[in-house]
Specification:
With about 190 residues, this protein is mainly alpha-helical. Helices cover about 90% and strands about 0% of the residues. Helix 1 (about 15-75) runs antiparallel to helix 2 and helix 2 (about 85-130) runs antiparallel to helix 3.
Length: about 190
């Protein structure tokens, strides 16, 4: 006589599994949110410290560049090849380039810093939000405003670059016109 072995299959109730996961998430949500917020805060502090260092070093480099340029111009003044009129146009153009370049550089640093601060703010908001729908809304609004801000800032920086180009070329244009006038009078 043969006996048939029967095995009983275990069944898993998906509703019970889902309920268990939800309970686990609910029980640990505050801990996860606190950990996420703490990580965001630490990253933000590190970013701010590095940004301040970058700004300080940038300003120092610009100041040293200006000083070095002024020393170089003074060195050439005693040279037999020094032409005061052409040198003045070069000095004016160089000063305009440094001034406008400093403003463009500062604007770009500020733009990057502001964007990162916004990322930290959004991250903090998401960490504090318990509703998934609200998280999607926050992310969608962030994406929309980020794109609008980017387009606006690129336009602003582009305008600054065009202005800088005009400022740098202006002294040479005036000197070119003066040299052309002098040449035509001699001819």
């Amino acid at each position: 006589m043969t006996t048939k072995k029967t095995t009983k299959k275990a069944t898993v109730d998906p509703v019970e599994v889902t309920k268990g996961i939800e309970e686990m998430v609910d029980a640990n949500r505050k801990t996860l949110q606190d950990a996420f917020a703490f990580g965001t805060e630490a990253a933000e502090k590190a970013f701010k410290t590095n940004t301040e260092t970058l700004k300080t070093n940038y300003e120092k480099a610009v100041a040293e560049g200006k000083s070095g340029f002024e020393k170089a111009v003074k060195t050439f003044e005693g040279s037999q090849f020094y032409d005061k009129d052409n040198a003045e146009a070069f000095v004016k153009a160089s000063n305009a380039a440094v001034e406008k370049g400093e403003k463009i550089g500062s604007a770009m640093i500020d733009f990057g810093t502001d964007r990162m601060q916004e990322v930290f703010n959004v991250t903090r908001s998401i960490a504090e939000t318990e509703d998934v729908t609200k998280v999607v809304e926050i992310q969608t609004e962030f994406a929309k405003t980020s794109m609008q801000t980017y387009v606006s800032e690129v336009g602003k920086i582009n305008t600054m670059v065009v202005d800088a180009t005009k400022s740098v070329l202006e002294p040479f244009g005036a000197q070119y016109a003066a040299n052309l006038d002098m040449f035509t009078k001699q001819a």
